[in-house]
Amino acid sequence: MTRILVADDHPLFREALSGALEPYFENAQIIQAESLDDALAKLNEFDGVQLVLLDLNMPGGEYFNGLITLREQYPNIPVGVVSGSDTVEVVAQVMSLGAQGFIPKVSQTREIAQAIVDIIGGKKWLPDGMEEELEKVDDELKVLLQRFRELTPKQIQVLSYLRAGLMNKQIAHEMNVTEATIKAHISAILRKLEINTRTQAVLLMDKLQLS
Asked: Can you list the domains of the chain with their CATH numbers?
């Protein structure tokens, strides 16, 4: 039995994708999750999940936090990102962070089915022409991607609050930690990204087109 987890906060998309895939995978079990926490719970509940189809911007998964968390906690389960944000910067970041494939939400069902077969079979999958586009990514962006990859999920969460304009005290309240902990996270972020200020961190996120 092929067991696939579809993690997306839009129930209509989950249902449509699940229904569309059934003819291509006999006896497949399509498990659905509506948030990162739900996805982690389902992975803990169901053994033998062979693939996670992950939306980038579902609750808890923003700023690539979902992808990073899944790769950390379930490194042996391949992840195929399914997203409407398909710029070369986003795809480069997704692949840099360990996704096995990137599937645009506008893809035809047969393309998604082929992507699933390839990814479960251990191959990487990208839309036609995307691999050539990734080769054109400039060296500066590649360096930024490598630095960003070193951040932990908590540090990325802090970055998202920084970009939203929150101060340290407000971030500490949102994350239910001390202000000192937030200061430590920010210091680590600046060190890993090799920058000096919070403003530079926000500009970097803009450059990577994190939304």
From this structure: 2-134 (3.40.50.2300), 139-208 (1.10.10.10)
